[in-house]
Predict the structure.
Amino acid sequence: MKNLINLIRNNRIRQIFSLLFLSLNMMSIEACAQSSENNSDKTLSPYFFVQGDDSQTDQLPLKSTKAEVNIAGIIADVMVTQEYKNEGKKPIEAIYVFPASTRAAVYKMTMTIGERIIKAVIKERNQARQDYEDAKQQGKSASLLEQQRPNVFQMNVANIMPGDLIKVEMCYTELLIPENGVYEFVYPTVVGPRYSNQSAATAPENDKWVANPYTKEGEKPMYTFDIKINLNAGMPVKDVRCASHDMDIQYNGTEKVVATLKPGNEFEGNRDLILQYRLKGDAIQSGLLLYKGTDENFFLAMMQPPKRVTADIIPPREYVFIVDVSGSMNGFPLDISKKVLRDLIGKLKPTDRFNVILFAGASNLMAEQSLPANQENIGKAISFIDAQQGGGGTELLPALQKALSLKGTENYARTFVILTDGYVNIEKDAFDLVRKNLGKANFFAFGIGSSVNRFLIEGLAHAGAGEPFVVENPDNAETMAQRFRTYIESPVLTNISINYPGFEVYDVEPLSVPDLFAERPVIVYGKWKGNPTGEIVITGKRGNKDYLNEMKISSSDLSDKNSALRYLWARKRIQMLDDYTKTDGNDKKLSDEITNLGLKYNLLTAYTSFIAIDSEVRNQTGQSTTVKQPLPLPQGVSNYAVGGGNATAYKSMGAPSYNAKRMVRSESLATDEEVKIDNKDTSPEPELVFVTLADPATFQGADINKFRQYVLNQFKYPESLKKSNIAGRLILQFVVDTKGKVTDIKILRGLDPAIDNEIIRILKNSPLWTPGKQAGKPVKQKFVLPIEIKIAK
């Protein structure tokens, strides 16, 4: 009996060690996507959060975030409250990266510690950072709000003492612009992981936020989320709805609505919250708002556009579809993209021509020149797209450059259509490239997913004289595709010009109004002098006919309640100067102008920050632990968004969680040998090296070698890539079932869609253990095999 118990116990121990070893192997994939132990060449990448070993440090200090939204007419005022609590035993500094609307004008911040309320001041960015670091070293509690992108902010809170509850409130205002009679308020809740190929060691300071921890796919946020929206439209409202979240919507009369998040939804802060509504009769609020200040007066004109007319003659068009198939698009987002593309390509006119470029770590072109939109070519394109699974980095710039290098079809109007979640770190580089090539085509951008990078999507459309679209789910994919076709075929208003007879205006933004594709108001901001008299006159072309619209100044709304206009004007001015312009910080005149705008109007900008410092020294030693608050992956985004790039798993304190070694098995090696894998091979012909991330003892006998040999023999370097000189590492995992069949293949780090698909093809058809054997014994349960494949050329 005793021997039997020992035997059972030993078997159980073997099982535990087997499971433990498998866990370490999976950690090695996340922790060692970079094989070099020297981190100097590590790219600036997001990483998976791993709970640290220090039980005395609260590694999840953000406990809640909530928003109070007041919408009066067309202006929304939002107060965001973040609560940080230190439930550990050591002083900490918390860092939290969070999103906001691309139109947000952030004008106020306060910090509350117990009964003390500290009002933040606006300062030049470097000075604010220095003041914050000084306060942190002195042991004072402080909070610093910085803008990393127009839609990405970072909050630092220093010296949160054990037991502290610190509240930080941020206020911003933005303009709601209706489209096709629908008003939409968007509250972003999470920043998606950004792909970057920059070196972490040399990256500029305002890019280092990209290296942020994330929790795994499907995990709920580690902090609660709540929101309340008070809508006072000033006109009867109807059709108030929120498709993104479960909200309780209460009507208080015909013009007022209160929308609150229903109980039980406090962990749903992993996607954009989108509230939509219409006014009675599908009316659009248009008119002129005036504000008379002490030293400056501001106006906002919102002029209703004409109804769309059908174009008599629709010229043939050439479409180039540029499609993101990177790791962050794997699964749900890529499925939406496929649905949009089937609709867009499947309904092209026979007179149209088109092409498709797929991009991840590299770009893959369907044809060397655009093809006629006949049924055969449309079928090829859909098959080309449907074969994609999503994997690898997000090299957007090379894809745009490849599209721009394609020869256009003579006498065809050319349009580029970009489909992506926008999880990149080179927004302004992309805008600059598009702007410089605007004469070659116009650009329309589709943001795909529940929490897209709207800054990129809107910026590409702005720079490319097109329109942005956001497709949050499959339900509105067809609607957005139809809207795109309508916009392309028949713009609402072209050749737009605005004049101000009898009304003394200056500092008007924008200086010129682009063609209007969507049925949304024409909006101009500015300042005025003297008496509010005269009129605003807009002219343009509506189809083939002249258009004229006049707005009398005397009928405008002059009120102190319009004080937000000074913030909205300043934010618009900053947007036109900085948001879509690549300066690299070298244009001192421009940076000085933006800095002065931020300081004068009390606004957060790329060059100004809010800083709040408590006067009391609370941490006598000045020593604290810095904690980066982990973010949830946006809803529908897979782990490949982190593992598909050059991602690394870290403990919350910043140290690598596991530093595994790799065992290389190649035809040239008689025995296993430790090697360093890099991308510096210059072999004249394509070469594939097979690498396992598992212990050789796990797979004994000739079976694994047979499988390795099969992969090496079957691999064919894609013809389409032979001129591109693509080389690098691909990491994947697959499940082997009890019959030796390969199932559930996942690309953890892709290289190029064509190469990724070639490896998947091989694995699907590979002869493996039959009957399945592991260590010479029959396999009674499926197991995971992680491998790395190096492609050298």
Q: What stands out?
A: The chain has 13 helices and 43 strands. The first strand starts at residue 47 and ends at 50. The domain at 2-31+660-792 is CATH 3.30.2420.10 (TolA/TonB C-terminal domain).
